[in-house]
Amino acid sequence: MGCASSFPGKNVGRSGSLNGEQTVANDPKNIRVKLVLLGDSGVGKSCIVLRFVRGQFDPTSKVTVGASFLSQTIALQDSTTVKFEIWDTAGQERYAALAPLYYRGAAVAVVVYDITSPDSFLKAQYWVKELQKHGSPDIVMALVGNKADLHENRKVSAQDAMEYAEKNGMFFIETSAKTADNINQLFEGTGIYLYRNKTQLSWITCNNRPKCRSCICCYEVP
């Protein structure tokens, strides 16, 4: 089940657009980004968004119907702001045909799987292929292994996921919406990457793999 995220919060905007050109910012100091989350039902996409936008986790959550829209703005170290316009899509199969409406024109796609579910990892790979075929040519993709707090029940190794991400030119990070682990890092790292416009990146040491050049946590603004 996914955390319900269709209700308004203090940072929810009404400017979200399904169509239009790829959304990355006109003002280099105020970046506006259309971001879409994709993944199987129950992997925690809505919980990730709810934790990022409102700092909350709801264990008694509902399945997202169709899609929901929220927004959140973060500030980078040099006072640049990044506003994420987030489309959280439903993971149920009957809504799969609607997904292109939401990832069309997206600058960022966050593909989420559950580290305790091999099937959800296979579904994530399906979405990566769909994005490669039908997404924007220069879309930034992040592979996110959620529910890291359930590591004792892990069925998808971080090494396998990282190798897949590297092979497909993606960021990789594991998160826990329940504990908030790496949630902010996911969005901050994505914002920094977009700010750098894929060039002149600075590398720092990843906690798991020194200078892996794949994890989102390996980016910083000097």
From TrEMBL:
Keywords: Nucleotide-binding. Gene3D superfamilies: P-loop containing nucleotide triphosphate hydrolases (3.40.50.300). GO terms for molecular function: GTP binding; GTPase activity. InterPro entries: P-loop_NTPase, Small_GTP-bd, Small_GTPase. Pfam families: Ras (PF00071). This is Ras-related protein RABF1. The lineage of its organism: Eukaryota, Viridiplantae, Streptophyta, Embryophyta, Tracheophyta.
